[in-house]
Amino acid sequence: MSQERRPGELNALELARWWWRQLTSMRTALILLFLLAVAAIPGSVVPQRNVDALATTRWQAEHPRLTPIYEWLGLFSVYNSVWFSAIYLLLVISLVGCIVPRTWKYARAFGAPPPPAPRLLTRMPGHTSYTCAQEPREVQAQAAAVLRKRRYRVRPSPAEAEAVEVAAERGHMREVGNLIFHLAILVVLAGFAAGNLFGYRAGVIVLVGGGFANNLTQYDDFAPGSLFDTDWMEPFSFTVDDFQAEWIRSGPAAGQARGFVADLEYRTDPDAEPIRYDLKVNHPLAIGGTEIFLIGHGYAPVITVTDGDGQVAYSGPTVFLPTDQHFRSIGVVKAPDASPAQIGLEGEFYPTYAFTMETGPFSAFGEMLNPVISMLVWTGDLGMDTGLAQSVYVLDKAGVDQVTAEDGSMFRVDLAMGDSIDLPNGLGTVSFDGVERWNRIQISRSPGKFVALGGVSLALLGLMMSLFIRPRRVWVRVRRENDSTVVEVAGLDRSSGGDVTEELDALVALLRPEEKETT
């Protein structure tokens, strides 16, 4: 004997149908769209590893306690996180579930004739009437012709019908606009998905005078899509021959860079002729399906570390990362081959050094007018022999000790360009030999960007149609009363807050321009 179900109890199939109706409702789609927008906020606030690995590394070094939590939450790669992908996929399913039934329903209703006139036209939001001497069928034919000229779909009553009336309707394209808008959201999401699946985004720092070839070993950071194939990478290369920056010299923004340009010479493939290009911010170089952006610049002091045995343990330009608008920059030097002990330096570079008792050292100007480096010295095991990857911008202090002066005070390497200093305890010397410039280059392949752009254009089109097309219905009923013909005209604006009074007045004026209206 089967067990009776309690009131409101659902079986598995009914429960699945209920969940599907909830997921594919317009309310749920709007909620998911809002959640997607909210979920994207951390991607704009927290540095993203696949957008700017340098900024991410610097943020992690400055916030060691928050970094593990952010890593667990996926906040350094928001758009690849599980929770963002879940919202994204649910939104796609919800939109498809909303759009497909509505499209099918609209397709069936699109060709349907206008609904017949209500029994009491006086109850319509807009209503007017007048009398004339014409025959009812003449008025009906005239009303049908006028309404057709005003782009209405018209359905006059048949000749054998007792009631003489005309039903008319227009504004069906408003619903098309709504469908286009929702379809456009799917197109944008599809373009976004294509870019994340089949594209890549990478970054590299290139010294002025240095070059780059488009292969994986050349990148500082590389974030490919899950379906990306390295065979799709164009075989281009380029060199940064020169770099110019324009500096603001007066006003509140004095000392900041207003505009900068990198002079490139590039080849689309190894056998191609070189081509020159001025790479500017927001003016990327496009090679095939790949775009090259100039997104930053900075200084690379040339530092030489000579160890206690008189051997050069480190020498060359060292990239320092800017921390403010005047290019006060932080950097690290590692000399693991130094003898008798490994040497590490960590500190700051000031393009235009200045000092006050209130603020201490700072850079007064972004342009290199008085370059100075100030670094602390560490010695011991730098942790570079463990086989684990290590950031070149972070000094692992777990196995090192800070070097102090003979009197036990903190020892600093404070050097102007061209100076050198001896390290305590016979560790060696450090010299500041010069400064080179570097450019931060972002290289990306986004195959879905034109799809997303098309989706945005469709969304604007659908929105305009939804805002400016007003769906309306108009009815004209004609009857013979005594020795005259009474014409009733009523209208209904199907959009919220619409007024059809002007439309009815214009229609009556066309139907009987020589008559006087009575209401």
The general outline is elongated
Rg, nearest Å: 37 Å
- What integer is the average pLDDT? 87
- The percent range for helix content is 25-40%
Low-confidence segments, ≥5 residues, pLDDT <50?
Answer: none
Gap between N and C termini: 71 Å
Proportion of beta-strand residues = 25-35%
The main β sheet shows up as: 7 strands, antiparallel
Got a strand count?
24
Total number of distinct structural domains? 4
**How many helices in DSSP terms?**
10
Q: Label the structural class.
A: alpha+beta
Describe the protein.
The protein is an alpha+beta fold and about 525 residues long. It folds into 4 domains: about 90 residues; about 90 residues, TATA-Binding Protein; about 130 residues, no CATH class; about 140 residues, no CATH class. The chain is about 30% helix and about 35% strand. The protein has 10 helices and 24 strands. Strands 4, 6, 10, 11, 12, 21 and 22 form a 7-stranded antiparallel sheet that branches. Strands 13, 14, 15, 18, 19 and 20 form a 6-stranded antiparallel sheet that branches. Strand 21 and strand 22 form a beta hairpin. The radius of gyration is 37 Å and the shape is elongated. The two termini are about 70 Å apart. The relative contact order is 0.15. The model has no long low-confidence stretch (mean pLDDT about 85).
Summarize this structure as a short list of keywords or feature phrases.
7-stranded antiparallel β-sheet, single chain, 4 domains, 10 helices, alpha+beta, 6-stranded antiparallel β-sheet, about 525 residues, TATA-Binding Protein
